[in-house]
Amino acid sequence: GAGGRACRPLIAVEGLSTAFVDPALRYLESRGAEIRYGRRLRALTLGQGRIERLDFTDEPTVVGPDDAVVLALPPWVATDLLPGTPAPQEFRSIVNAHFAVRPPEGAPLILGVVGGLTEWLFAYPDRFSVTISGADHLLDEGREDLARRIWVEIAELNGLARELPSWQIVKEKRATFAATPAEAARRPGVATRYRNLVLAGDWTETGLPSTIEGAIRSGTNAAQALFRTGMCGRAQAQGVA
Ligand SMILES: Cc1cc2nc3c(=O)[nH]c(=O)nc-3n(C[C@H](O)[C@H](O)[C@H](O)COP(=O)(O)OP(=O)(O)OC[C@H]3O[C@@H](n4cnc5c(N)ncnc54)[C@H](O)[C@@H]3O)c2cc1C
User: Fold this and answer.
1) Most buried among 26, 43, 91, 162, by the most CB within 10 A?
2) Homologous superfamily, domain 4-89+181-228
3) Which CATH architecture has domain 91-177?
4) For the segment 78-96, what is each residue's pLDDT rounded down to a tens digit?
5) 19-33 burial: b if 16+ Cβ within 10 Å, else e
6) Which residue has its alpha carbon closest to ligand 1 atom 5?
């Protein structure tokens, strides 16, 4: 809200794993956390004011008296497992396009495009990538047509040939919850009526739209809520976060 000069865009040039995920895993593992993957949470066993068991696809995990659970799932999964949880119900899509072309010298790392199909153009060392938000109107469009239309814009912006290079289009239908007053009113706080269970996720009430920063803030909120209730025992990451 303080204007462009107050903004500092940060770009994960080598990918989000290198920027966020790998350092987070190293931090957790160095503190003795065990990370388990590939286990889908199917159900929760809820008792008197506390969660008692997590039913994963392979085997259940009993929640001990000193354990706490942070449920960091997408809203549609969280509300399935914990009926009655308020959550956003309307979503918006994002389309990403990638082109296997090494950008010319001097191409800006990030370029905002006004009045085109392309919204944000990223010139990574080995490719161009495009992000188009609020892209529901593009979901039914053929992937190759879309790639062609976007490439024409990139070629124009960078003085390149219009011939379509190798490309990839990724359509993510429920990429973000809709940033509308109606959906904002549905965002829950992190506390639940179970004292050893809190929610996390960008869709909880963070004060931010659906973003990585919002997801991080929700994690901090969840941890603080557990500290407040004294439920800050042994942490166990189950690959749900
Ligand atoms: C295409 C796209 C582009 C984006 N670009 C940006 C951007 O440039 N900047 C930005 O800030 N944000 C961006 N976002 C938004 C950002 O990715 C989200 O805000 C963020 O990932 C939300 O984090 P989260 O932890 O709340 O949820 P998620 O990252 O969705 O994590 C939820 C996890 O739960 C897992 N899960 C689901 N069901 C189960 C189950 N039953 N059992 C166990 N695990 C389960 C999922 O596999 C997933 O790993 C983008 C999103 C998309 C889709």
Assistant:
1) 91
2) FAD/NAD(P)-binding domain (3.50.50.60)
3) Alpha-Beta Complex (3.90)
4) 999 999 999 999 999 999 9
5) eeeeebeeeeeeeee
6) 211
